[in-house]
Amino acid sequence: MSNHTTIVDVVVIGAGVQGLSAAYNIALGGSKSIVVVETRESPGRGSSSRSGSMLMKSRENAPKIALSLFSYARFMRFADEFGVPFQFRRTGFLSAVPPSQARRYEHEHALRLEMGVPSERLSPDEIRKLAPGVFTEDLVFGIFGPDDGEILPAQILAAYERAGRTLGVSYAFDERALGIVTHAGRVVAVKTTHREIACGYVVNAGGADAGEIASWVGIELPIANRRRSLYTVVSAPPEFQRGPMVEDAEIEWYYRPLGDNRVLVGMGREAEGGPTDGPNLAFLPTVRLATARRAPALANFTVLDGTSGIRPLTPDLLPIVGPVDGVAGFINSCGWGGEGIMHSPAGGSLVADWINGTTTCNVDRSQFLLARFSQQTINHRGENA
């Protein structure tokens, strides 16, 4: 690290989709100087580019549905906001529900309807008509979200970065954050491999590394990193060439037709393992077994490509967004659980609202604070030197 010092208002650590959205939205709402510090050589090289690539209203609880409704509406204005057509293919999302999950999905179906999310309860016969390749003999019903669909993460990442640059955001790629300096209970600088950056705010958008970043200011985050693996496969049966994205509600396995005899097959949550740039062959036998159970004719697929990303999961499956007690100027945006792409408009807006003192997002931001967890879960270890 050199002796060079930069002075800005806000340092965002992490150039994944949530970090890019935070920087863009902060700049959109104010005149603050902002730098995004990223270890990798370009944005979205962590788990943001290893996404199942869906935009969904069909989430499992009220806070997530609220995030989805805000984000979905803003994505529908993407062309007006960023100047290019939004690449979105409305495929629908079908949850295949066995008896063990029936009570949960009946509740979720009712909640979605209550909150204005289109949701349809399908019989096994109706499931077979919509997704002919799905084995339904052990299912009690399906829940279908017709508004959900496929997006292109690369387009979203590029839009946030490009628009951020236009608004004056600086990006420091190939520059690793090493620590955060605090004084009198607030952040004053970020140390990197290249310099020290004096600042008044630090946004922790570190994805899988968010726990380490929080530890620099004496905070322990209740986040468990779990790996999710995706496979692009070849499968010729016609029943997998069309239709919605389908998940097995019990085992977190899913598939989505891609066209040209290609199908996306995915599954999480592996307890161990890092991201992969190719298919995770060690996990492939488990995925084939799950495929044989729910979509037997798909199980003999040929793997073309694949990737694995990290899902940072909190105990209540909600993200951690906002300030923390005892460390002024430190703002979390982490624990997104693999849903950072679809919720990036809401996440960036919530961070910007905390920093700019605005209210651009109509979602109750207090429900995402770290303080919602018990003191047994959170360990404040004190201020660093």
Question: Can you offer a commentary on this structure?
Answer:
The chain is globular. The C terminus is likely disordered. The strands form 4 sheets. The protein has an 8-stranded mixed β-sheet, sandwiched between helices. It has a 6-stranded mixed β-sheet with strand order 10-3-2-14-21-20. Strands 1-13-12-11 form a 4-stranded mixed β-sheet, with no helix packed on it. It has 385 residues and is of the alpha/beta class. The relative contact order is 0.20. Helix content is 25%, strand content 29%. α2 crosses α9. The chain has 9 helices and 21 strands. The protein has 2 domains: 173 residues, FAD/NAD(P)-binding domain, CATH 3.50.50; 141 residues, D-Amino Acid Oxidase, subunit A, domain 2 (D-Amino Acid Oxidase, Chain A, domain 2), CATH 3.30.9.10. The protein starts with a strand and ends in a 29-residue tail after the last helix.
Helix content class? 10-25%
Report the sheet-strand fraction. 25-35%
Structural class: alpha/beta
Number of domains: 2
Text of the CATH class of the largest domain? Alpha Beta
State the gist of this model.
Helix 1 (17-28) packs parallel to helix 6, helix 1 packs across helix 9 and helix 2 (62-75) crosses helix 9.
